[in-house]
Structures are given as C-alpha cells and as structure tokens.
Amino acid sequence: MEHFWLCDVSGHNTFDPEGPLSLGALYDALVKQGLLEVFFYDGAPDREEFIRIFSGEERWTYAAFAVDGRPLVLAAVRGITGKSGMFDFCYFSAGLPCKERLARECLLMLREGGMRSLVGLTPAPYRHALRFASRVGFARAGVVPGACVFASRGGRVADGVVTIMDLQTL
CB under 8 Å to 168, separation ≥6 — which residues? Predict the structure, then answer.
C-alpha cells in the first residue's frame, strides 16, 4: 500500500495543525475504531489532552497515512533516556494488511535517527499485541506482576510483559 510518514519530534513537526493529517484526526480515528481505550488502557485522554501529549517535547510521534489520507499506524517513543525509550504502536484497520512492514519502517527510522534500543510494556492479556511485537523483532524480557491497570474496566489489574528491541540487530 502506498503511504507516507508524518512525525512530531523535537524541532521537527510535519503534522497539519488541523485537518485529515493532524493529531486531532488521529485521535478521532482512534475513537471511531474503538482503539483509544486499548492504546490508553491506563486512562484515555480527551482530544485536547491527546494533542498536547503527542505534540510535546517528551514524546516522539510518528504516523503513517495511506495516500488517500486514511491513518495506517500511530507510533510513539516516550521516556527517552540516552538512546533508548519506551515504544508504543497502534495500527488502524486500513493498516492491518501492512502493519508489520510499517512497524519495521518506523523502527528503521528510529535507528537512523540515533535510537539504539526500545522497551515495550504490554498488558499480558493483549496476546495479539505480544505476538505482533515478537514478529517485528521485540524479545520478551520478563513480566512485571500487576503493572497494568485497565481504567475502562473498573481498574482491573494485569501483569505487564516487558519486551526489548535492540535496533542495532535490524
């Protein structure tokens, strides 16, 4: 599928302020496709807060769009220390057929940008997400008991699976 990437990283913002290629449009797509509370299992922000979070200096945001403007994937790196950070990734329905290729493209962009490793924390019940992480090169590093709280499920607690990606091995 033909696509292009936009990003919002320190000193480099390619998202439109409003419209179909904006952080607001990504939020709207997350809500429409029922992904907001999956991506933000610990508490979903409102639209304004989402835009603030994903355009802030403390998070690098990447999104791929189909040439017709449909969002395909949303990725973010947060908690950046040195050349490492926490990685979050979400694919939209239009990105389903090419999600692994898009994840690898994003990982390569991060490596080319100087990142050396990424860490993921995935709720253990998200088995599909854990299989996907494994397919794109993340290795399971361990389990943190009780690390994930599902805000939309009355505060239910689940274990978190820690995965690590050594970007030098891509």
Answer: 111, 116
